[in-house]
Structure formats: structure tokens, C-alpha cells
Design a protein that fits this description.
Length: about 160
């Protein structure tokens, strides 16, 4: 029992250390000139594969890649900071697939391994699809990839839940 307690304490301490705010970069100022927000992650390159929308969106690390536009410019192109919704702005190579025919896997890439600033709004208010009449927005996550070379927004994707 003592060994289990020691292991659980060690693992908890390790997780808290790995997730501490001292390991995250923060922007010196926001694009709108307000005070810095300690939870903002602007301009961090991803170091591990990240998957979203049940694996239909994949953000891969891109070691050594040099974007032509800054993370702050990409954030402005995506819509900037929003009240109560401080986004993450991550650099990586994005692939977005969707269901389709004509491929061996059944999926077609809409965006294929493109270097992007991936802007994630974690507290977005999303419109309900298929709702008729006055429907309240639902809480969810909105992703807005911005081409890291041109500054062009590649669209936006939203999903409810975490």
C-alpha cells in the first residue's frame, strides 16, 4: 500500500510540473493592446502530433520551419482575441480530411500537410446546426488555420465539447 501511495504521489507531482504555466510561452502584449494574459499561448511550435475532430484534423510538428508571417498577424487574421476567449496560436503542418469517395482510405484531404498557424478558441459560442427558430449558441472549440506563408485564413471548423 505504501508503494502505491508513493507512486501516485510521484505521478501527480510529475503531471503538475509538466502542466505548470512556467512551461508555456506568453505574448508580451495582445494584438489589441490590452495587458498580457498568462494563459495565452501565442507562437508555440507543436512538438507532438495533435488530433482534433476524431482524427479528421491532424497538426504535425514541423521542426526548423520558418513562417513568413508572425503568430500575432495570424491571430489578427483569425479574428483576434475575443472577450473571455483567449486562443492558442500553434505552428505546425496541418492536414484536414473529410469523408469522400475515390481514395483507398475513403478520406480526401481538404488541407494537405500545410504549414499553418493553428488558432484555437477553446470557449467559442457556436451556432447550432439544424436548429429552426431562435436557438441559443452552444459552447465549443473553434479552429481557424492561417497559412503561415501567406497569412490567408483557410476557413474555420467548430465542434462542441472539450
Amino acid at each position: 500500500m505504501l508503494v502505491r501511495t508513493l507512486i501516485a504521489t510521484f505521478v501527480t507531482g510529475l503531471c503538475l510540473t509538466a502542466c505548470s504555466s512556467s512551461h508555456h510561452q506568453t505574448a508580451p502584449t495582445s494584438p489589441r493592446g490590452t495587458a498580457p494574459t498568462p494563459t495565452t499561448t501565442i507562437g508555440r511550435a507543436v512538438s507532438v502530433v495533435m488530433r482534433f475532430r476524431a482524427g479528421m484534423m491532424e497538426l504535425d510538428p514541423s521542426p526548423g520551419a520558418t513562417p513568413a508571417i508572425s503568430a500575432a498577424r495570424a491571430l489578427r487574421a483569425a479574428g483576434g482575441e475575443q472577450p473571455g476567449n483567449v486562443p492558442d496560436v500553434l505552428l505546425g503542418r496541418l492536414t484536414v480530411s473529410d469523408y469522400g469517395t475515390g481514395s483507398t482510405s475513403g478520406f480526401h484531404p481538404l488541407v494537405d500537410h500545410r504549414l499553418v498557424w493553428f488558432v484555437l478558441y477553446h470557449h467559442a459560442k457556436l451556432k447550432q446546426r439544424g436548429c429552426h427558430g431562435a436557438c441559443p449558441p452552444i459552447d465549443g472549440t473553434e479552429a481557424v488555420p492561417v497559412d503561415a506563408n501567406t497569412g490567408e485564413s483557410l476557413g474555420d471548423w467548430g465542434w462542441s465539447g472539450a
